[in-house]
Amino acid sequence: MEKDILVLEEKGFPVIKIYPDHFEVKAIDYSKYRTFYYSEIKDIKHYDPNNNWWTKLHIMSSLTAQIFSKNDPWILKIIKKNGGDWTYKTSPKSNSEFNQTIQLLKMKLQQ
């Protein structure tokens, strides 16, 4: 069995296990891990899906959207070189350990 380099388990975020040649992600609402090899990944993004012009327009014109949009989950998107992508919901609150883990994965993609 391979030795884990890093395991991130934070409330509101997917579980991420980092190995020397791949990493695994388990969604918040799913019980199985998905394996991603660094050589297959094109990009990893973590973003607020409400941060675009049409959503901002809707939020400005709707009181309900203004109240509830701050609690919408952010998205962790893993894009493969073959065009496939996987999205995982994350907490909208900032987490330094999660951010460092994403930066580590991005660095491993550049190697």
UniProtKB/TrEMBL annotation:
Domain of life: Bacteria
Annotated protein name in UniProt: Uncharacterized protein
Species whose genome carries this gene: Aquimarina rubra
